[in-house]
Design brief:
Layout lengths: L12 E6 L3 H12 L4 E4 L8 H4 L20 H6 L9 H14 L6 E2 L4 E7 L4 E6 L4 E9 L21 E4 L14 E5 L3 H13 L2 E6 L5 E3 L7 H18 L21 H14 L15 H17 L4 H7 L12 E3 L2 H4 L5 E5 L5 E4 L3 E4 L2 E4 L2 E4 L8 H4 L2 E3 L6 H4 L18 E3 L12 H21 L4 E4 L1 H16 L29 H13 L5 E4 L1
Parallel strand pairs: 1-2, 1-6, 2-3, 4-17, 6-18, 7-16, 8-9, 8-16, 9-12, 10-11
Antiparallel strand pairs: 4-5, 5-6, 13-14, 14-15, 19-20
Bound molecules: flavin-adenine dinucleotide.
The site of flavin-adenine dinucleotide has 37 residues, from helix 1, helix 2 and helix 13.
Length: about 550
Amino acid sequence: MTEKQNKSGKSDFDAIIVGAGFAGMYMLHRLRGLGLSVRVIEAGEGVGGTWYWNRYPGARCDIESLEYQYGFSDEIQRDWTWTERYAAQPEILRYQNYVADRLDLRRDISFSTRVIAAQHDAASGLWTVETDQGGTYETRFFIMATGCLSAARVPDFKGINDFEGEWYHTGGWPHEGVDFTGKRVAVIGTGSSGIQSIPLIAEQASQLTVFQRTANFTLPAGNRPLTPEEIAETKARLLEQRQHARQTPGGIICFEYNEKLAEEMTPEEREKELRTRWMQGGFAFLGAYGDLTATHEANAYAADFARDQMRCAVESPQLAEKLLPNDHPVGVKRLCLDTNYLETFNLPHVELVDVREAPIEKITAKGVLSGGREYEVDAIVFATGFDAMTGAILSVDIRGRHGISLREKWVAGPRTYLGLGSAGFPNLFFITGPGSPSVLSNMIVSIEQHVDWIADCLAKLTSGNIRSIEATQEAEDSWVAHVNEVAAETLYPQANSWYMGANIPGKPQVFMPYPGGVGVYGQKLDEVAASDYEGFRLDA
Ligand SMILES: Cc1cc2nc3c(=O)[nH]c(=O)nc-3n(C[C@H](O)[C@H](O)[C@H](O)COP(=O)(O)OP(=O)(O)OC[C@H]3O[C@@H](n4cnc5c(N)ncnc54)[C@H](O)[C@@H]3O)c2cc1C
């Protein structure tokens, strides 16, 4: 491809997509199908996004593999066979590479290239997109498929540059892997990535010290090989199942939500429902009754049950209490699924440091200074998560109509219409952006929902000679208000979670995803499309 500066008013591409994870790959496929010229720009050296970067030990999906796959192609799903209930990272990445080969995607992707800025020009109606390789491209449509969990966050600890050992972030793990055999290791962070990696790091390390700020709810994943019958059943019905998944709150069908409210059940019924779902593993637990994440009373039954189960896994009662979450309702932070996480703390060489009692003061040349004690280690693993939902979008300096900056516009929190677009930014689309169900759902279902909507929209625009589409200010304001109202009816805003931006110092604390459910949200998307894009301004 030639990189050129185009001042003629004719764009280099009809569409530029940033990111080659599940979202960018499918978006490319759909837009090619419309006959548009498309370029994908990806910072990594290969496709896969999340599964390209997160190669830490134990990384695997927490939505069951049979549902955590594309549902747009019957051929692809029939020809690919998952091996485990929850696929591990290498298998998911192999699948993504298989899809990329099968659809011949790579020829339209620029790898090892990061988009750093994009500026809309009102006169030409084009976006000028700049990369860190010095390239500048002009495009009519600019699509951010940059991922909700792709901006890895390393905390700003004092002294980190003085550390003489090696340190890693789970979200940027070395491709060749890391051998911790015989090493003293510190893991900082006990969210999903920490909980998945700690048991495996403990198998190799001579000494493992886990620094925990927040104890999280975790339940056994119940991972196991898939049976031939399960695989055959899904292959026969995946597309139909996916249709069904799109109508559900979470985009998954491996369990049914119980619509009864907690108070409509006897204590025995509640206990039975919670126990059955806990044993089932996965997110079924959160569907035990309809108001589990809506009221404190209802939530408390499930939270108490979860704590009781968790307590049983830890031999030392004092240690168990430290590992039990007591400061937030269950299900309002991402529920973690584990394999032997709590049991790992029964091992003699594994130690827990509660940084609420003993805050990390700094990283020293030899290790971690916490609560006045220096923990000497050979390696530090930061399992400290991501600047979620907005981090990757705002890492690009995006300027819309009249030079308005997206960073400035979102300074008090993200503002979108439907999570898809933002007023002042014509022809800019976000896939699973803030204000859409995104991280509260099976993300592949949400990704397909958005990609299909955007592709259908671009088909209409291009066939109708419509130059641009842009969310109106009124539609955006009322959608933001609606998202806040729906969130306020739940317990979600009551936890210091990354859904709220609480893990990033200085980040505005607003609830970012739309908690109304994938099904309800999908109906809204359909209505908007059917009404010739009500809430958007179309310019010929
Ligand atoms: C460890 C882990 C486990 C997860 N498990 C699940 C699960 O079980 N179920 C589920 O539904 N979701 C899960 N998720 C969420 C996961 O992110 C999504 O399911 C999905 O993979 C997102 O795909 P995506 O294409 O939207 O984004 P990503 O996969 O994050 O891809 C975005 C890509 O954009 C690139 N990019 C970003 N900014 C730029 C830029 N400026 N220039 C160039 N390239 C850029 C990145 O390099 C990245 O490759 C998990 C996330 C993590 C981190």
